[in-house]
Specification:
This protein is of the alpha/beta class. The chain folds into two domains: 147 residues, HAD superfamily/HAD-like (Rossmann fold, 3-Layer(aba) Sandwich), CATH 3.40.50.1000; 71 residues. The chain is 47% helix and 11% strand. It has a six-stranded parallel β-sheet, with helices on both faces. Helix 1 packs parallel to helix 3 and helix 1 packs across helix 4. The relative contact order is 0.17.
């Protein structure tokens, strides 16, 4: 079946999250330091590398538990982390190159969103005059389940009225993007950016169909999967 649809992850593909990752690192370092642990940015970076290798689903929660495996403190820290995140959350920022590649991509594929952001994402894209390039605009707000459950991918595609065999998933994580997409027979392109850029497949079944490090490389990768 010819590929006709291109679904983009929010974080790491549509949105650049470096400032978000920096803010979360600072929050975790502050929480652990306040609890009496001498925890540095270097410690955090080492924990991130280990967590990525282990394919932990939530790096931030895993780091808190690894450093202080006490149920009561962990529950407090998770709640406090959410509160501090709401106070310090940086504004959304477009991934470099997105506005340049979307017009051309929309001429060869129908583009959709397959990420974990809500309506703030579509509002942001609309303000940036980029939402017009998206044929499928469903966000996490409309679904009870989320990544990495393959059923979330199935529901997004069913709502869009498209077949997985005719669709490409573009995401930055093997565990949350590539694996579930491949499970339902989507093609996959991986963006090597952010905290998970060094994540490696554990078996050949987890390899993406293509890899890129910049959005400027996405049109060529799409063309190769389209057979052009």
């Amino acid at each position: 079946m010819p590929v006709q649809n291109l679904f983009l992850d929010a974080g790491g593909v549509i949105l650049e999250e470096e400032e978000h990752e920096r803010a979360r690192a600072e929050i975790i370092i502050d929480l652990l330091t306040e609890h009496g642990f001498p925890y540095s940015l270097e410690d955090y970076q080492q924990d991130v590398e280990e967590g990525v290798r282990l394919f932990v689903p939530n790096l931030y929660a895993w780091i808190l538990w690894k450093r202080c495996p006490e149920d009561a403190w962990y529950a407090y820290a998770r709640t406090e982390m959410r509160e501090r995140w709401r106070e310090r959350k940086p504004p959304l920022k477009l991934m470099s190159g997105l506005s340049e590649v979307l017009p051309g991509l929309s001429n060869s594929c129908r583009i959709g969103i397959l990420g974990q952001y809500g309506s703030e994402l579509t509002e942001f894209l609309d303000t940036a005059n980029l939402l017009r390039y998206f044929s499928f605009r469903s966000t996490q707000d409309g679904f009870a389940i989320t990544k990495p459950d393959p059923r979330y991918f199935e529901q997004i595609l069913e709502y869009a009225g498209v077949k997985p065999e005719a669709s490409i998933m573009v995401g930055d994580r093997i565990d949350k993007d590539v694996i579930p997409a491949k499970t339902i027979s989507m093609k996959t392109i991986r963006m090597r950016v952010g905290l998970h850029r060094h994540q490696e497949p554990r078996t050949p079944d987890e390899r993406p169909d293509a890899e890129i490090s910049r959005l400027e490389e996405l049109p060529m990768a799409v063309q190769q999967l389209l057979g052009f």
